[in-house]
Amino acid sequence: xxxxxxxxIWDSKINKPxxxxxxxxxETEDQNEIEILINCKNIKFENTNxxxxxxxxxxxxxxxxxxxxxxxxxxxxx
Length: 78
What we know:
By secondary structure, the chain is of the alpha+beta class. It folds into two domains: 2-47; 51-78, no CATH class. Helix content is 23%, strand content 23%. It is built from two helices and five strands; from the N terminus they run ββββαβα. It has helices spanning 31-38, 57-66; strands spanning 2-4, 8-11, 16-20, 25-27, 44-46. The chain has a three-stranded antiparallel sheet, with no helix packed on it. Strands 2-3 form a two-stranded antiparallel sheet. It is elongated. The model has no long low-confidence stretch (mean pLDDT 81).
């Protein structure tokens, strides 16, 4: 997943940096880091592991709407 913010996130449990954002972006596949970062305030994120072939039509419309993508051309194939 990609996370967007500036600076460093400190992991107080291990008393070490969890991650450092480079040019405002931090990308990881580590599930522990993902869980911690999703629950942090003021961090935007993007799930880069979505398989759009397997996503439900309504979910796809919702995700597009959340990203500001117009869906007027999106049609459900029967």
